[in-house]
Amino acid sequence: MASDHLENLLIRFITDNQSHIYRLAYSYVKNQQDALDIVQESIHKAISAAATLRESRAIKSWLYRIVVNTSLDFLRKQKRVQLVDEATLELYGTGMEDVYQDLDLEKALEELPHKYQSVVVLRYFEDLKIEEVAEVLSENVSTIKTRLYQALRMLRVKLSDGSLEEVK
């Protein structure tokens, strides 16, 4: 059966990429327990809907889309300020010399609207190609390129003068 084969491939992909899936969820919610909950819910959704997966080449973008959407749904439901968890505080508390620059970048990235933040996270932190980012976010490639360009300009402006404005 083709669907059993795709389900097995999906389970293998999840197993092999669990840290990437967790990191993607965490990049949205900034909380270890919430990220784990999102990963669990996303995996449940993916396995339940495995029959809708048409080809093995689409597993990565299909699953990442589920994680992104589950993360955004969670944030919409929570509507709360995300607190930094203890592990992150410890990481920065024992940081190297460049920790302040990293914190500035992280803060600037968090201040981006989600449509820009998603593009940056998927492209640079998850190392997806532009075409894969477009597929994950259900957008066309030119929209993703424009958003990525605008997001990078907003980050550059934010890091240089401290303000975050959408660049037209």
TrEMBL record:
Q: Which Gene3D superfamilies match?
A: 1.10.1740.10, Winged helix-like DNA-binding domain superfamily/Winged helix DNA-binding domain (1.10.10.10)
Pfam families in the record: Sigma70_r2, Sigma70_r4_2
Q: Which residues form the RNA polymerase sigma factor 70 region 4 type domain?
A: 104-155
Transcription among the record's keywords? yes
Q: Which family does it belong to?
A: Belongs to the sigma-70 factor family. ECF subfamily.
Q: Which InterPro entries match?
A: RNA_pol_sigma-70-like (IPR039425), RNA_pol_sigma-70_dom (IPR014284), RNA_pol_sigma70_r2 (IPR007627), RNA_pol_sigma70_r4_t2 (IPR013249), RNA_pol_sigma_r2 (IPR013325), RNA_pol_sigma_r3/r4-like (IPR013324), WH-like_DNA-bd_sf (IPR036388)
Q: Which UniProt keywords apply?
A: Sigma factor, Transcription, Transcription regulation
- Report the protein name in the record: RNA polymerase sigma-70 factor (ECF subfamily)
Instruction: Give the organism the record lists.
Output: Paenibacillus eucommiae
Annotated ranges, domain RNA polymerase sigma-70 region: 14-80
